[in-house]
Amino acid sequence: MIRINQIKLPIEHTAEELEAKIKKALKLTKGQDFSYEIVKQSIDARKKPALQMVYSVNVKVDSEASVLKKVDDNSIMSINVKEYALPAPQSPSSSLRPVIAGAGPAGLFCAYALVCAGLHPLVLERGKCVTERTKDVASFWERGVLNTSSNVQFGEGGAGTFSDGKLNTLVKDPLGRNRFVLETFVKFGAPRRILYENKPHIGTDVLADVILRMRQYMEEKGAEFRFESCMTDYRTEKNTVTAVEINHSEWVSTSFLVLAIGHSARDTFRMLHEKGGLSMSAKAFAVGLRVEHPQRMINLQQYGELYADKLPAAPYKVTANLKNGRGVYSFCMCPGGYVVNASSEEHRLAVNGMSYSGRDAKNANSAIIVSVTPDDLPGDDALSGMRFQEMLEERAFSLGEGKIPQQLFGDYCRNQASTSYGAFSSETKGARVLCNLRGLFPAELESSFIEGMHAFDRIIPGYGREDAILSGVESRTSSPVRIARDENFVSPVEGIYPCGEGAGYAGGIMSAAMDGLKVAEAIIKRS
């Protein structure tokens, strides 16, 4: 296989023009057959208005060695494509079926890999199936009726289901797990473009359907999914897991328990901490506010006037390291999206961002978050970060009286309540109210947020505009807890496998799914 990198074409080009570029790069003669696959596609907008589409492609051609001899270009090379492969089970009938607590990306892909290896896992999910969960979320946004077990955080698909469906990750992937996850999404209905887009996404509307089909396939192959079924305890003998309790009322025997519980399973964190046996610690995370701007403003800054209305809604990424040692950065940026009430507990309020597949809402939004240090936390035990999140969410709930509390950035800087929007209004899912968000965070976090916003205004002119809309509180950026595991992914209790974002080993759909695969591989090897 030949890889060609850095093929550049005008934004508006044809497939024939791309093929012509490939032929020219490889110096192929007329009639010399070849086939190609796009492995990466991105937009280079550094030299406005002359934007370019940049490709990397894999090419199959006869007499590959002779073709490579004719070219002298560092962007062209011979490669071996690594295909992901699961290990073979050693003795599939020797163990009780694995139990997976949580049906988010980590739990789903752990289950999927086990099914592919011929095992029949039991997946427990405290929330409802994705179809019923979607109804509960809509009811909450429209009428304020919160189901604490079925909401933006809990239910089939995990917290990522009601987000932008982002499928990019910075995790290094020499074994091909990333590609396997993307190919699995495509297998169950995601568009093929996610296999090569630089920052792939599928949107919450498409992702929900993909998850449903994925689960139905696993059920046909022998997996069992039990919704409204929360893991509430576990038993051990000789420091080895033997059974799992469901809803405080039923015990299921198992030799393998996967803790794919997600970053918001606070009651489970408490149960595990109080029970002892596992090694748990507070983990670094960040908190902040979700910030809205007109999407066209972002398009103009990223693409320029010529392409602002011709290309898909533009994303961005900004980061700043402050003199006080804190980092401030964008997180979960949603082009053409909505700010959503992502609460999962009574009298506590958290927000997130969400986009549908079309990314066609009027505003861009992103969490702008500030790193949290141990000095910010109430205590130094494993759950101190979780309690800090809870405190912020209680303040946010109080500020908005249950509605999403919002403020314009200029008013935030002046420490005065906002009474009306500026040149644009907010795009939200869930009721909202204007107020004064100052006092929500400790003073140093507030000053760091303001300094970060001004720094980003120098990167994206207009980012710190007076009428940028702030919504609080973005507190569920990642798990505040890490559950220790060894090089074989096993906790100090034999047979228990901490997994994914909730256990502190992932951040986002892709990295969580890949971690689920890693844990499944470890279980398969021991089955």
CATH superfamily of the largest domain: FAD/NAD(P)-binding domain
The total count of strands amounts to: 24
Supply the number of helical segments.
12
Alpha-carbon distance between the two ends:
36 Å
As a percent range, the share of strand residues is 15-25%
Globally, the shape reads globular
Largest sheet: 7 strands, mixed
Could you walk me through the main structural features you see in this protein, from its secondary elements to its overall organization?
By secondary structure, the protein is of the alpha/beta class. The chain has 3 domains: 2-78, 2-Layer Sandwich (Alpha-Beta Plaits), CATH 3.30.70.2700; 99-281 and 480-526, 3-Layer(bba) Sandwich (FAD/NAD(P)-binding domain), CATH 3.50.50.60; 286-474, no CATH class. Helix content is 29%, strand content 24%. The chain has 12 helices and 24 strands. The model has no long low-confidence stretch (mean pLDDT 95).
Summarize the structure.
The chain has 527 residues and is an alpha/beta fold. The chain is built from twelve helices and 24 strands. The chain folds into three domains: 2-78, Alpha-Beta Plaits; 99-281 and 480-526, FAD/NAD(P)-binding domain; 286-474, no CATH class.
Task: Throw out a few tags for this protein.
527 residues, Alpha-Beta Plaits, FAD/NAD(P)-binding domain, seven-stranded mixed β-sheet, 29% helix, globular
